[in-house]
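Researcher: I need the complex structure. Ligand is adenosine-5'-diphosphate. Inputs:
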Amino acid sequence: MEGPVMLEIKNISKTFAPKTVNEVRALQQVSLQISKGSFTGVIGTNGSGKSTLLNAIAGNFELDRGSVVLDGQNITRWPEFKRAKLIGRVFQNPFAGSAAGMSIAENIVMAMRRGRGWSLRTAVTSSERREMAEKVHSLKMGLEDRLDNPIGNLSGGQRQALTLLMATWLKPKLLLLDEHTAALDPKSAAKVAELTSKIIAEEKLTALMVTHSMQQAVDLPGRIIMMHRGQVVEDFRDEMKQRVRVPDLIRVFERVQKMELFDQSVAEMLEQQYV
Ligand SMILES: Nc1ncnc2c1ncn2[C@@H]1O[C@H](COP(=O)(O)OP(=O)(O)O)[C@@H](O)[C@H]1O
Ligand SMILES: [Mg+2]
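Model: Output:
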């Protein structure tokens, strides 16, 4: 049932500010296999390591240990810019993914020519322009007539839709979405979520999407992983995923937190006994 593996994460760990009072074990021996063409929702409480997991895959920092293999290539030592040719990303902040002062067309040209060297100065060809207008039209936001307007004049939802289009233009091997609808008003968020599903399905992309909405994770096809304290604590897939509902997820959250409280109180008890 499962396709070939697109992403294989083996035993990755990352501690920020090690051996200081600010030490955070953001990822603790996380292993994960993602199949080609699959969709995975990532949920978990604030600070549980969701963004750090995506950042580790994208190469924002060096790992303390472990490896990341993408489509058979070990990219563990690749710098971020090199991985960016294979990995598309959309962040929570609608202003992060595009250059405000540049036009829609100029922003798209950068996405279209990504990884092809310094060809930005070359004028946009008429066929590129046609392709642009066509894809922008498919967003159904009326932006195809505004290709030469600065992207900074657009709403957050419009910018996020364009960022999504640009992140997927060259059909990345992996699409990483980090709460990319969380900063939008409900209507724009719904629209961008719908576009996301459409593009992922049409382009048959492999995607990893962090969401704060358990309902969204349940409604979307594919797998759900739950993170807690830098670890993947639950993995709902196949029939389990079909059956799982929001109250079940909440119960799991509560159980995980209770176990932690238990661990803490035991630790405290032991500490008190031995001081
Ligand atoms: N660059 C960083 N430097 C120091 N601490 C960080 C950094 N990035 C994340 N953290 C810490 O790592 C933990 C996990 O963060 P993050 O992955 O952003 O959580 P999430 O996305 O699940 O809310 C948090 O305690 C956060 O403060
Ligand atoms: Mg985050």
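Model: Summary of the prediction. The beta strands are 5-16, 24-35, 39-44, 65-70, 73-74, 87-90, 174-178, 207-210, 223-228, 231-236.
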